[in-house]
Amino acid sequence: MPMEEKLGSVAEVRQWADTIPFQYEYTAGVAGEKFLRGLIEGKILAGYCPACRELSLPARIYCVTCYGPIGKYVKVGPAGRVKAITKSGGEGAPTFVYVTFEGARGGMIHRLLGRGRAGSKVVPRFRPRKERTGSILDIQGFESGT
């Protein structure tokens, strides 16, 4: 029996548009919540490993070096350094930077406000306190530091 007879003809295929009402709620986790609550306060927090005496950003609950638990979160910055820079598109598109902080392993990616280049010093520009919600967008971006 030919395959077309088993499956039917293309004319018999039907389709419809619909939605499935899924709702997802994800938590930021223990370290993520500490980090986001820090942003509300105008701080960038890194996880501190007491065994390695090392800071990690993004904050984690386990050390990436010794796998020990992290229970302390420490403010880094405010000044950081641009390690990498990229433009997301054509003219007028935002520029993004990878910013590292002295003494911390890792860093964060965010918008660059104004001009900058790799190696330049930058500081975060936070939204006004009353507008902060515990989101990475509580930081509007990074701008040239003094």
Secondary-structure map with pairings?
Elements: H1 3-7, H2 29-40, E1 44-49, E2 54-57, E3 72-76, E4 80-87, E5 95-100, E6 104-113, E7 121-126, E8 139-144
Parallel strand pairs: 2-6, 6-8
Antiparallel strand pairs: 1-2, 1-3, 4-5, 4-7, 5-6, 7-8
- Count up the domains: 1
Please give the count of helices.
2
Report the biggest beta sheet as strand number plus sense, adding barrel if it closes: 5 strands, mixed, barrel
How much β-strand is present in the residues?
25-35%
Principal-axes shape call: globular
Provide the gyration radius in Å: 23 Å
What average pLDDT do the residues reach? 87
Q: Which structural class do the helices and strands define?
A: mainly beta
Low-confidence residue ranges: none
Please list the strands of the largest sheet in the order they lie side by side.
4-5-6-8-7
* Number of DSSP strand runs: 8
Describe this structure in words.
- The protein is mainly beta and 146 residues long.
- It has one domain.
- It is 12% helix and 35% strand.
- It has two helices and eight strands.
- It has helices at residues 3-7, 29-40, and strands at 44-49, 54-57, 72-76, 80-87, 95-100, 104-113, 121-126, 139-144.
- The protein has a five-stranded mixed barrel with strand order 4-5-6-8-7.
- The longest helix is centred in the N-terminal third of the chain and has 12 residues, at 29-40.
- The radius of gyration is 23 Å and the shape is globular.
- The termini are far apart.
- The mean pLDDT is 87.
